[in-house]
Amino acid sequence: MKKRLFTPGPTPVPENVMLRMAAPIIHHRNPEFVEILSRVHADLKYLFQTEQPVVVLSSSGTGGMEATVTSLFSPGDKLITVNGGKFGERWGQLAKTFTGNCVELTVEWGTAVQPEQILEALKNNPDTKGVLITHSETSTGTATDIKAIAQIVRENSDALICVDGITAVGAHEVRFDEWGLDACVTGSQKGLMMPPGLAMIALSERAAKAIEASKTPNYYFSLKKALKSHAKDDTPYTPAVSLVIGLDESLQMIKAEGIENVWKRHERLANACREGCAALGMKLFSNSPSFAVTPVWLPEGVDWKTFNKALKSDNGITVAAGQDEYKGKIFRISHLGFYDELDMLLVIGALEFTLKQIGHPFEYGSGVSAVQKAFLS
Amino acid sequence: MKKRLFTPGPTPVPENVMLRMAAPIIHHRNPEFVEILSRVHADLKYLFQTEQPVVVLSSSGTGGMEATVTSLFSPGDKLITVNGGKFGERWGQLAKTFTGNCVELTVEWGTAVQPEQILEALKNNPDTKGVLITHSETSTGTATDIKAIAQIVRENSDALICVDGITAVGAHEVRFDEWGLDACVTGSQKGLMMPPGLAMIALSERAAKAIEASKTPNYYFSLKKALKSHAKDDTPYTPAVSLVIGLDESLQMIKAEGIENVWKRHERLANACREGCAALGMKLFSNSPSFAVTPVWLPEGVDWKTFNKALKSDNGITVAAGQDEYKGKIFRISHLGFYDELDMLLVIGALEFTLKQIGHPFEYGSGVSAVQKAFLS
Predict the structure, then answer these.
(1) Which residues in chain B touch residue A59, judged by CB atoms under 8 angstroms apart?
(2) Which EC number(s) does UniProt give (chains A, B) (predicted)?
(3) Nearest in space to A221 (alpha carbons), one of A31, A62, A111, A70
(4) What's the complex ipTM?
(5) Looking at the partner chain, which of B22, B196, B318 has a beta carbon nearest the beta carbon of A239?
(6) Hey, of B19, B27, B91, B327, which one would you mutate to test binding to chain A, going by the most A CBs within 10 A of its CB?
(7) Quick one: how far is CA A280 from the chain centroid?
């Protein structure tokens, strides 16, 4: 049976990227690799829409978040975080671990924090050194208006704006320089269509200054060292060579499509996915939907394990389960990275097969027809 | 021209490992991946000759060293390190960064620390919490007698024994349990014949207890979380999926050869490499040679840049340069990982071609004939 992945990381890796990584390994001090890393550094600037450095770390995205917290801030620095899902919660855990001073706003899962809430928190905490937010919260499929929040933070505070863009970069509009962000993290196994193992962080001049001043002990995740090496198209420690080479390949694909087209495609796919699910009688989970992943409530009376078994074993489709208290209640369909219109038709079609198999009543063909209409309208 | 890598990391990756990693990506929560990780966990125990857990982190080997320091020790803990090269120096830097209390022994580059020196340092510092040592110091091609040092530490102290086995594991005899080690780190791009991007750490029961008690702030590199996840054949954060799959393949190769045979092969290759170099009139750098990498002095009157250009551009061979004050004075030939007898013949042959090209006098054929004799004796 054909197996197809609709998970928000790992996401499918194009064959040309896989095969490029299967070429004989080269040494990271060889001119050939330096040329590749130099091109990757340049193309990452395009991806983040920035003229400022984007460093590459060999770790998962969480490592990139840790590097941001330990490199930009010092023990005692007050950080505002927003807990509206697993990954916003993670910013909070990192802040508590390394600066020990975290003001954590809580928003309901499936809801985005509003700029006014950030403004209020800043007014109540004028000594805030950083605002750590999640652009696309993967656990809830919810997108936050980073542009508006960045504007409000800039107008009212000197706090650094640090964005978890792990499932946003390459799916949602991200304009690092224009929006005035200070740090934005992503991971390789998301919009970049790569296996996991690399984290990328765009860093502003303000961030670079903060990095110079930071007193938090760090070593592997020192962005001070990363920036210094970046200037020479180098890395402080042995990079994940094969993954950097794959990244070079996937960045060429993004450049060829054009970043604005990549963003529009994700918006289109997300919209069609939502239409398809709704037509099958599935309630949407988020009131501010991400373009990377669509979480939907399981239809009333449908058991998650039975449903997922039929979807996976009989139809070869892997989707993501709900997390924490939404385990067994929602599931998440990813359209992040290497997906097109026909993939959305395919996954909604597979949902129809699955619902039919487990005997859940719905109008056969209504999902796929809604997907088609969404694309053609 | 055929390109051939004789560097101590990245080391050559076998084609079957590369191709295995080029298969369609799978999700890390899929039963298929859990099965692979479970087998990797079991086979890593064989590699380290231990019954205790070996955790896998997505980072370079340095990340594994940082995880060891921040997870086993607390701020203020006194650690003994040995600076006899770049990587022993790194243990010291990590100790200074995270516990702030480091007794650093210095030994000359190319010389191994002696058990008596460790004993003396322990006697002078009875409050030592950990001894951090380098098994095979890559920068100097020097091997340290870890078995003897571990014995002396155990007999005279409660200090934890932490070993940088990055270029030793899969090259030198390592018997984690029998020798009573507490932590041993390796990296994927070394004896494991893989691209860089994974660190592996074997951990003793004593280490696990220390991990429970540690007060150093950490997150991504928390071995407490890593051990907890390991027990369920899981990882705390998204693992570098494709690299773990490649590791499964390379561990099968090591098992098929047999770990004792792998060690013996490395000893044989290192010996032949030394004989070949000596026959060409090159002085050996280390007085306690590693089986992973052989550093040799450039012959008198030979310029490193001219030599390396001829070796690389005309003969397709990449070796490693000398580091720090030995830049331009020594070079290092690796035989770590996927190498056999004929590779040693080949690399010494290439050295002969190169010396001939740059007009350095030597007896043509003497190097390769010494290699043959070494293998046949």
Answers:
(1) 58-59, 63, 220
(2) 2.6.1.45
(3) A70
(4) 0.95
(5) B196
(6) B27
(7) 27
